[in-house]
Amino acid sequence: MGVIGLALALACIYAPWYTHSTAAFTLNAFDLAEWTSLHPAVRASSPALLTSFLLRAPQLTLVAALALLANGFGDARARWLLRAAALLIALRFLPPREFFGSAASDPNFRQMMLLTALSMGSVLAAILVQGLAPRWRGLLVATLLALGVGAGWWGLARAHTLLDNFEIAVSVGVGAVGYTASSALVALLGLSLLRWAERPGPANKKGG
Fold first, then answer.
1. Which listed residue, 27, 73, 91, 124, has the most CB atoms within 10 A of its CB?
2. End-to-end CA distance of the chain
3. Which residues pair with 27 in a beta bridge?
4. Phi, psi for residue 59 in degrees, rounded to 5
């Protein structure tokens, strides 16, 4: 169920986060991050490209959450399959080939390279903590997803200000809402492991 929820959340990242009467400004989270990265105010902000980072952060947290959920599978093939899927999602951040040549100093491309490294690092970190107890793994997944949702809505609010300056009227799309709902579902499943762990087992009951 958790993996299905993350798959839905990922699909929602590429569904419209803002809708407009024209297709040009009906943007998913990834495209919205790219659009904001071109705005001079975003490039001049401190830290630079904060809005773009916030809109990309949800996908970063999904990669980390998927790698952690993979640890819960008893079948080694399933674990490695999910880790491979997480790495493929991480590669979505990879900047274009120009970054490795003449555009190495471009701040947007550098941020994308940073997110690629962070995403891949999160998969490696998840492998290293494979022995983590399920309840703590669930808490970590829930925390990551909460951070992703918070970052996404913060980035959405900042992007709205930029669009409003151009007098472009947009509405929150199904992508942002669906991402939030899917992430919340997986987070609640993770937190339920904490409640289950706190329930006394037969050996802890009186007379057990």
1. 27
2. 33
3. 18
4. -70, -35
Residue 112 backbone phi and psi in degrees, to 5: -65, -40
- Measured CA to CA, the distance from residue 88 to residue 66 in angstroms comes to 12
Region 65-89 average pLDDT: 95
**Which residue, 157, 149, 137, 156, is CA-closest to 184?**
149
Q: Please check the confidence at residue 199 and state whether its pLDDT lies above 60.
A: no
Residues in the chain: 208
Mean pLDDT for the stretch of residues 46-65: 96
Residue with tokens 């970052």: 151
Average pLDDT on 170-198 reads 85
**Residue 131 near residue 101 (C-beta atoms within 8 A):** no
Q: What single letter denotes the amino acid at residue 86?
A: A
- Give the pLDDT score at 208: 42
Among 56-60, 101-105, 202-206, the minimum mean pLDDT is found in: 202-206
CA distance 152 to 31: 13
Cα separation, 91 vs 60, whole angstroms: 11
164-171: long-range contacts at Cβ-Cβ below 8 A with a sequence spacing of 24 or more? Answer: 168/20, 168/25, 169/20, 170/18, 170/19, 170/20, 170/25, 171/18, 171/19, 171/20
Secondary structure letter of residue 94 according to DSSP? P
Please, which pLDDT band fits residue 194 given cuts at 50, 70 and 90? low
The predicted model scores a pTM of 0.89
d(CA 106, CA 98): 10
